[in-house]
Structure formats: structure tokens, C-alpha cells
Amino acid sequence: MRIEQCSFCGAPIYPGHGQIYIRNDCKLFHFCASKCRRNFGMKRNPMKLKWTKTFRKANGKELAVDSTMNFEQRRHVPVKYNRELLSDTLKVMKRVEKIKERRQLALWEKRMERAKLQEKRETASALKHNIDWIEDLEVKRTAREDLLAVQSEREAKKQARREAAKKKRTTQAKRAEVTTTSSNNNNKNKSNNNTKKSGEGKKKAVKAAGKKSK
């Protein structure tokens, strides 16, 4: 049995589940639930709904382009039954599923780094505005030290960004100078070639005039 994909949200549909809709042009649409069927009937765009897998993949929340996805592609090629091939395929499926889960976990951890940074900033701002409410002197001292550490880290990041932008500007200026010098050299070469051609043309004209006078 084949595991189908929902034509609206992209979720997997296991055997014995979901709905099938056949349009007038004999095209089949598989839906995992009546929710997807109704949204499809209302002609809603799944890319604009945050709960669909298509939206999540398009916005980098799930794996979209990965080598493990190639294993799930549909191949319209008849294959003769082979017991060894079947057992090897089942083993590979388990292995590919483990690799896919590991990569999805790595992607999730990478996404959560931004959330951790945002949470850190929010806690720092809350401490900054409400530090006088802390009665314990030891806790207040540690909170101030943490605030200073966060501020110094932020300043270091800003400085690194400024230096990177400065380097980028200098490299762009150097490239612009190189292009201007090369264009000037090309213009000089063209003008020299034109003067040479004009001189040769004058010489030919003088020779032709001399021959006519003879």
C-alpha cells in the first residue's frame, strides 16, 4: 500500500484514512481531513496558511530540499518481484528515516537559536527596568554583572558588523577603481587605433593622388 500526500496541506495519508476527490477532468485529489477538503473547495492558498506543511517548508521550518526526499519520489517503472531487493529496500527505508529525523532535529536546533537569543534579550531588558525591585544584594549584584556581560557582547557584535561593512566598502571601492582604470586603458587603446587608421588612410589617399598626377 502507498502512503499518499495531502493535496492541500502536504501531510502523509496512511492506508484507510483520508478522502479522495475526483474532479470533472478525472484528476484525483487526496485530502487528509475534511478541513483540507473544505479549504480546497474555498480555493484558499496553502502557502498562506501557517498550519500547512507547504507553508512550513517554504519558510524554512521543515526540511524541503534534502537528499533523503529523493527516496520518496514516485517512480513509474515496473519492477519484477525480488525477495532480496524487498528486504534491502526495507532496511534502507529504516536507515533513511533515521537520517531524516537527525537532520530535522539539527534544523530545529538551528531555528531555536534565534528564539534563545530573543528570550535572552527580553530577560535582559526586564532586568534592566526592574532591577531595583530585587531586595537581595547578592542577587542584585549578579544580575548587574549579567547585564554588563550582555551589553558588552552586544557591543562586540556591533563592532564586528561595522568592521565587516567597512571591509566590504573598501573592496567595492577597489573593484570600482580597477574597472575605471581598465575602461580608461581600453578607451586609450581605441583612440590610438583610430589615429593609426586615420594616418594610414591619409597615406593611402596621398599615394593615390600621386599616382593620378603621374
TrEMBL record:
Matching CDD domains: Ribosomal_L24e_L24
Entry's Gene Ontology BP terms: ribosomal large subunit biogenesis
Biased composition (Low complexity): 178-196
Keywords of this entry: Nucleus, Ribonucleoprotein, Ribosomal protein, Ribosome biogenesis
InterPro entries on file: L24e/L24_sf, Ribosomal_eL24, Ribosomal_eL24-rel_N, Ribosomal_eL24_CS, TRASH_dom
Ranges of compositional bias, category Basic residues: 204-214
Biased composition (Basic and acidic residues): 152-163
SMART domains linked to this entry: TRASH
Any GO CC annotation of this UniProt entry: nucleolus
Keyword Ribosomal protein found: yes
PANTHER family per record: 60S RIBOSOMAL PROTEIN L24 (PTHR10792), RIBOSOME BIOGENESIS PROTEIN RLP24-RELATED (PTHR10792:SF8)
Similarity remark: Belongs to the eukaryotic ribosomal protein eL24 family.
Protein name: Ribosomal protein L24e, putative
Organism encoding this protein: Angomonas deanei
